[in-house]
Amino acid sequence: GVDGFAAVAHEALARQPTQLVGDLTEVVAGLQREGEGDLARLEARGEILLRMGARVVGLALHGGQLGESICGIYLEGEGHQQEDTLFIERCRISNFSGDGIHLDHAWCFTVRNNMIIFNGGDGLAYSHWDGWVCENIFNNNNGYGIRGIAPNASVSVVSNRIEWNHRGGMLVEGGGHYH
Fold this sequence. Notes:
Layout: E1 19-21, E2 26-27, E3 48-50, E4 55-57, E5 60-62, E6 73-76, E7 86-89, E8 92-94, E9 101-112, E10 115-117, E11 124-134, E12 137-139, E13 144-158, E14 161-163, E15 168-172, E16 175-176
Parallel strand pairs: 3-6, 4-7, 5-8, 6-9, 7-9, 8-10, 9-11, 10-12, 11-13, 12-14, 13-15, 13-16
Antiparallel strand pairs: 1-4, 2-3
């Protein structure tokens, strides 16, 4: 564990209502406990790196604009032979120097009911397929609120509030089959 926090594959980080479930390959060495009301504050390289089947629920992640291009949540899915089935829900992800959420080579992901604000890059950036992006708030990010990076396809983007992002609301580069 890191400073009193531990996450084992397919088990929860128990602090209701906040939990991490799945194979968390690395929770950053700089994770540090704060006041009783906050789960954690991210220091140094503030990324949570995820693997297949991970579920991130109810976290408040504040990056403090530390470092360069540091993402709040990052998935590197290149080479995966099965669906990632990643869920990110009911989180507040703010003030990272990079993207709030960056899913590279993601295959089957859900991002719902989150507030993703004031990040240095995009609110949500992803590549590849089979995604559901529902009922989130993306605002005041320095890039786009949502950005699909080529190649990407078969993503449902429904009922999101996307406003006041510096580069624009949504950009889909080389993608298709959107709902």
